[in-house]
Amino acid sequence: MIDNNTNQPSNIDPKILKKQERKKMFAQLAKQREEQRQFKIAERQKLREQFIKYKGEINKLETKCKNDIEAKWLDFRGQVKAKMLSQKDAKSQFKKYHKERINQFRTEEQEYRHLNTEILKQKFSFRFRRWFFGIGKEFSRITWVGGRQIIKDFGIIILLIIIMALIFLGLDALFTYIPKG
Questions:
Q1: Is 79 within 8 Å of 90 (Cβ atoms)?
Q2: Count of CB atoms within 10 A of residue 65's CB?
Q3: Cα 124 from chain centroid?
Q4: Beta bridge partner(s), residue 9
Q5: At what angle do helices 14-81 and 87-141 cross, to 10 degrees?
Q6: How far, in Å, CA of 105 to CA of 103, rounded?
Q7: Helix H or strand E encompassing 121
Q8: Beta strands in the chain (DSSP E)
Q9: pLDDT of residue 124
Q10: CB under 8 Å to 11, separation ≥6 — which residues?
Q11: Which of 130, 151, 160, 180 is the most exposed place for a label (fewest CB within 10 A)?
């Protein structure tokens, strides 16, 4: 026979149906958690790749700047040897070029560092969200005691306090009336 309300066979126990529904629900939850975990892993990987990319860019800029400065210095030294420039003029021009190149490098480095801090902020917000998600999971695991159980526990505690008070009262009375010897 088929039950008209649920379109399920009526000979199946409702508890079994609830268990099946719970199993489906838990399977869906497990699937969602796995999808979330995979998404988080992909996000972390993207952030890591961006971080490595920007770090590599900074290193490339630094080496390029050093190489340019060394090449320019060699160019100035060559001009001094060829008597095209005096040594004083070569040094002043080199210092000027050096300052310009270093300032250019610093501005580019600041841009990359700014991008790097943005990545770190994203990592922090990800960790912060994960922490709150963990708190939510912990709260879902809490089982609260019912009112009857609280009353039972309270009664047991009061009974134990009374019993212990009577024991100590009896021991105190016993040791008070024993003559000192």
A1: yes
A2: 18
A3: 6
A4: 2
A5: 170
A6: 5
A7: helix 87-141
A8: none
A9: 67
A10: 1
A11: 180
> Which one, of 125, 70, 131, 129, lies nearest residue 101 by Cα?
70
CA-CA distances (angstroms) from residue 117 to 47, 125, 174?
Answer: 11, 12, 76
Looking at residue 86, the DSSP 8-state letter turns out to be -
C-beta separation of 98 from 76 below 8 A: no
Average pLDDT, the chain: 77
Half-sphere exposure of 69 (CA within 13 A, CB side): 18
b or e along 95-105 (b: 16 or more beta carbons within 10 Å of the residue's beta carbon)?
eebeeebeeeb
| pTM (2 d.p.) | 0.33
- Residue 9 DSSP symbol: B
The one-character DSSP state at 5 is T
Q: How many residues does the chain have?
A: 181
**Which amino acid is it at 13?**
D
pLDDT at 2: 46
User: Is the pLDDT reported for residue 107 higher than 60?
Assistant: yes
User: Residue 147 corresponds to which amino acid?
Assistant: G
Residue 62 structure tokens: 């630094």
Residue reference for tokens 């079994």: 16
